[in-house]
Amino acid sequence: MAQAIAQARDYVPVHLDQLHHLPNTAWIPRPRQDFMALHCTAIAKERWVMDGNYLGCLAQRLARTTGVIVLDVPTIVSVLRYLRRSWCEPYR
User: How does the average pLDDT of the chain come out, rounded?
Assistant: First the structure.
């Protein structure tokens, strides 16, 4: 969804999972300081749309937003998607 909105509005798409995890690894997280620096750089831009849910930096993100889309996805769907990403797409 973030990608589609970014294309339609000419925004920069930001995927928090890509910021949080080291590239080309099986979901290995970056050091927290590195993630926070990438996050701060991303939200400092003028136009962006972001997907993901990392509560540790939510306050900074909300301070810079003009809108929020909340998806009400059933828990079982979220769990199944998480398992699919973890097992079937380890280097996503």
Answer: 92
Assign 3-class secondary structure to 47-58: CEEEECCCHHHH
36-39 CB contacts, 8 Å cutoff, 24+ apart? none
Quote the tokens at residue 44. 């400092």
Q: Answer whether residue 87 shows pLDDT above 90.
A: no
pLDDT of residue 92: 58
Domain limits, the chain: 2-88
> What pTM, to 2 d.p., does this model score?
0.81
Tokens of 51: 């997907």
Beta pairing partners, 49: 13
